[in-house]
Amino acid sequence: MDKSSARTLRISTLALAMALLGCSSREPAVPAASTKISWGNTPEGQPVELYTLTNAKGSEARIMTYGGVVVSLKVPDRSGALGDVVAGFDNLEGYLTPPPYFGAIIGRYGNRIGGGRFSLRGKEYMLAKNNGANHLHGGMRGFDKRVWSAKPLSPQSLELSYLSKDGEEAYPGNLSATVTYTLTDAHELRIEYSATTDKETVVNLTNHSYFNLAGEGDILGHQVMIQADRFTPVDKGLIPTGVLKSVAGTPFDFRMAKTIGERIEQKDEQLIFGQGYDHNWVLNRTGSGLETAAKVTDPKSGRVMEVLTTEPGLQFYTGNFLDGTLQGKGRVYTRRSAFCMETQHFPDSPNKPAFPPTVLKPGDTYRTTTVYRFSTI
Ligand code: GLA
């Protein structure tokens, strides 16, 4: 064989090998399966794993089995540079101290239940009062502080499941919960929740990611649109009064995009109670499918986040209780350095018969979906 045919053979062999391996020189290599590393143990000695989901465009989500926490979420800015848009810590230890619930799955009941009690079929259930006189985010040890079982479905999708035993945190019924995270090629973090029970119970699952689309600084310059004509005003303890109030003429009107900072310091009773925004908006819905709930734009990085959900409510919380004592990923989590958009049923629904119901019966399946979709302007 002469030199040039030997070279041609070498090149075609290489091309064949690359084709067989499914890579091309131009496209970023996509791992064959979501990668997994061990991330230490809980104080009780339960091992915790950290999974990395990567999409074909290089975006990346890291999710750990403790709390089903979204540890990091890297998406492009307008120049294509990847940046981490969620608050979090560098190691498991950071997540084991008392919670701001960074990135976690919240359950069995997201947000507050007034007086830490509710009745179901004539029986009263007394829950932990872990937020003043009220019950918050599932109690002393909610779903955010449990180790979930993980099953990777693909390089871009991870299924987590957790069995919450009858009587755990005083809730009735063995509740079998599944949460699937998928990072799509359209830069969407899709979260699908499902649950079944063997005894009538209440369920309200959400994710408590704290976003900062710039990945640094405060979030007061982020522009927010919320698709809601009404919100649920609260009392001093942040329990809804039961009224669905029009947002018109209030600092809660985000039907046209406004910056978070524009009205947050107004002398409005509701803003004073929440020390900023920490309220549930009643989403304008046309059906039961996935509909746009909100859109947030950071003019600096150009990043845009749209929130789509099947849920009736959205808790928009502006990190009012962050006070600079927590640090992680090279950032100090100062007041209003991140915001949450927790899709949900309304707070205190078990005590508010007029709110959309949160009761789950044996034989029925609880199913909700929320999508955080990232793009740029
Ligand atoms: C939710 C609540 C807030 C606060 C945070 C966690 O958003 O509504 O009041 O408890 O969780 O700090």
Taking the sheet with the most strands, its summary is: 9 strands, antiparallel
List the strand order in the largest sheet. 11-12-13-14-29-23-22-17-20
The number of helical runs is: 3
Overall pLDDT confidence: 93
Bound molecules: alpha-D-galactopyranose
Structural class: mainly beta
Strand percentage, roughly?
Answer: 35-45%
Distance between the first and last residues' Cα: 56 Å
Radius of gyration: 22 Å
- Helix percentage range: under 10%
Shape: globular
Record field, number of beta strands:
29
Give unreliable regions as ranges.
Answer: 1-28
Descriptors:
single chain, 37% strand, binds alpha-D-galactopyranose, five-stranded antiparallel sheet, nine-stranded antiparallel sheet, mainly beta, 29 strands, globular, disordered N terminus, 377 residues, 3 helices
Characterization of the model:
With 377 residues, the chain is mainly beta. It has helices spanning 3-21, 92-96, 269-274, and strands spanning 35-41, 47-54, 60-64, 70-76, 82-84, 105-106, 112-113, 117-120, 123-126, 135-136, 149-154, 157-164, 175-183, 188-197, 201-202, 206-207, 223-226, 228-232, 245-246, 258-259, 278-283, 291-297, 303-309, 313-317, 327-328, 331-332, 340-344, 359-360, 366-376. The strands form eight sheets. A nine-stranded antiparallel β-sheet has the order 11-12-13-14-29-23-22-17-20, with no helix packed on it. Strands 1-2-3-4-5 form a five-stranded antiparallel β-sheet, with no helix packed on it. A hairpin with a 2-residue loop joins strand 8 (117-120) and strand 9. Residues 1-28 have low confidence and may be disordered. Alpha-D-galactopyranose binds next to strand 24 and strand 27. Residues 100-101, 111, 136, 238, 278, 315, 317, 321, 340, 342 line the site of alpha-D-galactopyranose.
